Amino acid sequence: MTPVRLGHSDLQVSPICMGTMTFGEQVPEDRAHAILDRALERGVDFIDTAEMYAVPARAQTCGATETIIGNWLRKNPSARSRIVLATKVAGPSRGMPWIREGAGMTAADIVASCEGSLRRLQTDVIDLYQIHWPERSVPAFGSLYYDPSKERSQTPILEQLEALDRLVRDGKVRHIGLSNETPYGVHEFVRLAEQHGLPRIATVQNVYCLISRALENGLDESMHRLGVSLLAYSPLGFGLLTGKYDASGVEGPDAPDGRIARYESVRKQRWGRPEALAAARRYNQLARDHGMTPARMALAFCYTKWQVASTIIGVTSLAQLDEDLDAWGTRLSPELLAQIDQIRWEMRDPAA
User: Fold this and answer.
1) CA separation (Å) from 212 to 32, 127, 189, 206, 232?
2) How far is CA 22 from CA 18, 56, 198, 318, in A?
3) pLDDT the model gives residue 35
4) Burial level of 83, CB count in 10 A (0-12/13-18/19+)?
5) What DSSP string runs through 9-76?
6) pLDDT at residue 278 in the model
7) What integer pLDDT is reported at residue 29 of this predicted model?
8) Cβ atoms 89, 66 nearer than 8 A
9) In sequence order, what are the residues at sequence separation of 6 or more whose Cβ sits closer than 8 angstroms to the Cβ of residue 197?
10) What does the mean pLDDT of the chain come to?
11) For the purposes of burial, counting CB atoms within 10 Å of the CB of 317, is it exposed (0-12), middle (13-18) or buried (19 or more)?
12) Among 84, 167, 259, 313, which residue's CB has the most CB atoms within a 10 Å radius?
């Protein structure tokens, strides 16, 4: 895997990123450490986490994933210089009062969250510090429409950037990024950074997969023209694009073990929509018709798209990790890509 540069930064990372949100919930610490060891052995030098992980979010596991990674780094001190470490500050609480008091995300919140992440990760600096979701009220996590009446923003983007600038100047953060953002947010963060001499965002981490391609409806142009890199998460659509739910669905006694089947809170989100499963079944059968597993086709789609700098994979076992990494190098024929686009034309983006 040839390293890729993130935005205008000096960060060079593998085009596959190790996502870790299952660590501390589905994945116990010893297995998480084995997964991190294997990923590094196989050339994955980019690790992404967040202060609110593990997922599904609970008070009991908030910060657990960062703690597990920090313990791994303590056991493997040479690993820190070999990886690019990314984490995220949570946006407004969204019903998670254990993250912080109040509904906003102040400059003080950003600084305090970063310092907490540094302690849990047992490191002196975070290579890429991202805002997990906007402080503004935006359509995200399956919400389709912007509603001005719901706007409760308390911290202007400029104030957020100034807080991030303080962390960069203090040597606690090297570069910054966003997540679950809109075209407006990307443009405004870049505009204000350039106008005021503040840190420029290097990345945006947004969902991107066969059943959720809304990013291609304008955000990709913004990122391309502004020189901001995409970190694509959920390339397998929370497991829907592995094919394991094709026969049984995501609920009931016959549903296979997985995040959607296991956690009702996940089924209530975009991934649990009947339309999302119906579209996934179409794509999964298309993969089989072309002689490959559904997971290989779904991953290859992200791995080879011009929009994507690095694809974030999440696994619960070494076997899953190897399968995801073995899909690297797979190329999809023009005929297959046309058939993929035809399904999207008919079914659009049911998990957007």
Assistant:
1) 28, 28, 24, 10, 11
2) 11, 8, 34, 13
3) 98
4) buried
5) SS-EE-SEEEE-TTBTTTB-HHHHHHHHHHHHHTT--EEE--TT-SSS--GGGTTHHHHHHHHHHHH-
6) 97
7) 98
8) no
9) none
10) 95
11) middle
12) 313
**Could you state, in order of their start, the residue ranges of all structural domains in the chain?**
4-243+302-331
Of 283, 290, 292, which is closest to residue 236 (Cα–Cα)?
Answer: 283
CA separation for the pair 200, 182 (Å, rounded): 16
Q: Provide the token pair at 152.
A: 């409760």
Report d(CA 107, CA 110) in Å as an integer. 5
Sequential DSSP letters for 166-178: HHHHTTSEEEEEE
Whether residue 311 contacts residue 5, with contact meaning beta carbons closer than 8 Å, is answered with no
Contact yes or no for 130/205 (Cβ under 8 A): yes
Architecture label for domain 4-243+302-331:
Alpha-Beta Barrel (3.20)
pLDDT value for 266 = 76
pTM across the whole model: 0.96
Tokens 């505009």 map to which residue? 191
- For residues 326 and 285, what is the distance between their CA atoms, to the nearest angstrom? 20
User: Catalytic residues, which ones?
Assistant: 53
Burial code (b: 16+ CB inside 10 Å, e: under 16) for 210-242 equals bbbbbbeeebbebbeebebbbbbbbbbbbbbbb
**pLDDT score recorded for residue 14:** 98
What local confidence, expressed as pLDDT, does residue 203 receive? 99
Tokens standing for residue 103: 């509904």
Q: Other C-beta atoms within 10 Å of 254: how many?
A: 9
Q: Taking the CB of residue 94, how many other CB atoms lie within 10 A of it? A: 15
Residues in the chain, pLDDT under 70: 103
Residue 279: predicted pLDDT: 98
- Nearest one of 166, 170, 165 to 199, comparing CA atoms: 165
CA distance 140 to 269: 11
- What pLDDT does residue 261 have? 79
CB atoms < 10 A from the CB of 305, how many? 18
